[in-house]
Amino acid sequence: MRYEEDNFYIDKILKGDDASFALLVDKHKTMAYNIAFRILKSREDAEEIAQDSFLKAYHSLKEFKRESKFSTWLYRIIYNNSISRIRKKKLDTHSYNDEEFEWMEPAETARELDKLHHLEQKKYVNEALDKLPGEDATVISLFYMNESSVEEISEVTGLSQSNVKVKLHRSRKKLYDELHLLLKEELNEIV
Amino acid sequence: MNNESFKRDDLTRKILEKAGMEQPSYSFTSRIMEQIRLSHSPEVFIYQPVIGKKTWMLLGFSIVSVLLLFMNMPESQTPGANNFTQYLAPAQNAMNTAASGFFEKLSRLHSLSWMAFAIAAGWLLFIMDRVLRKSAVVN
After folding, report:
1. Are B9 and A59 within 8 A, CB to CB?
2. In this structure, which long-range contacts are made by residues A40-43, counting pairs with CB atoms below 8 Å and at least 24 apart in sequence?
3. In terms of pLDDT, which residue wins out, B135 or A102?
4. Residue A25 near residue A68 (C-beta atoms within 8 A)
5. Range B87-96 contact pairs with CB under 8 angstroms and sequence separation of 24 or more
């Protein structure tokens, strides 16, 4: 489905057309859900937080000043709600030691991945993403999957732009390391 | 961004493309819209009686029990029964006086002060009822 610009829907919603909000939800629900899911690592929690955040956005729409993109504003609500939920649950994010794994050539990991069936590739990449701390997985998802800029990610997460760049660099390394480890385990199981 | 970093960036993008995005449930949007619809509907108040059914039954049972107890109790077995009737006597007299006075006053209903008193008492009861009902609101 081809969507209009966000402001087109926002104007209609503010005039009382609630049906336009359904279109706005459809347009952004996948990324919104993915942000919550990458942080919370639970489908049920992610769905609940994403829905609550959309409702919060709906009720606060009058306060949206349009200084940033609607998606950035919405993702920030989702990000903050997910972080609050995780703090309430006192879930410890996966602590990662940079020295934990041997450094592998990314191209080699990618080649190993290419040998697998499409569904298996999806499974391993998702498993590797699940093993990353929530913040890292969100930064990497926003940058590579949503094509958000460093500036937008900085607005969503509240991190400085230089911190986002550092996180992106480290998250990529962690992703490759996790992926390499998973593929190595798979190889050992086959052998 | 140097060449190696760019290459890795491209690789990461390709790898993440393989993972694809997680999808929310099919009813994701409809559930949000249902919540919005509910938030627009007016609040529903369910009024509950100030004195519950059980309390009324308990009160009735207590009054009937006390009356039956006194009616069936032989005079000789009720210590202080004389005293009791002795205390009741002035009240009985007062009631008789009040009743006769009431009928007398009925004939003088045209008196403005009585009418004003009745209207004020009626309003007081109405206001008390509203206040008590509101305090017992259940959403």
Report:
1. no
2. A40/A82, A40/A85, A40/A86, A40/A134, A41/A130, A41/A134, A43/B22
3. B135
4. no
5. none
Residues of A with CB below 8 A from B21's CB?
A: 30-31, 34, 145
ipTM higher than the 0.90 cut: no
Q: Which amino acid is at B116?
A: A
Does the global pTM surpass 0.80? Answer: no
User: A22: distance to nearest CA of chain B, Å?
Assistant: 6
Of the listed ranges A136-145, B39-48, B121-130, the least confidently predicted one is B39-48
The secondary structure of residue B46, as a DSSP letter, is B
What is the structure's pLDDT at A162?
Answer: 93
User: Nearest by CB to A125, which of B5, B8, B15?
Assistant: B15
B22 vs A25, A34, A106: nearest CB: A34
Classify residue B131 as left (phi > 0), alpha (psi -120 to 50) or beta.
alpha
Judged on CB neighbours under 10 Å (0-12, 13-18, 19+), B122 is exposed
Contact A126 B19 (CB under 8 A): yes
Query: Mutating which of A54, A103, A141 best tests the B interface, going by the most B Cβ atoms within 10 A?
Result: A54
* Cβ pair B18:A51 closer than 8 A: no
CB proximity list for B109: less than 8 A, separation 6 or greater: B115
Identify whether the C-beta of residue A179 lies closer than 8 Å to the C-beta of residue B15.
yes
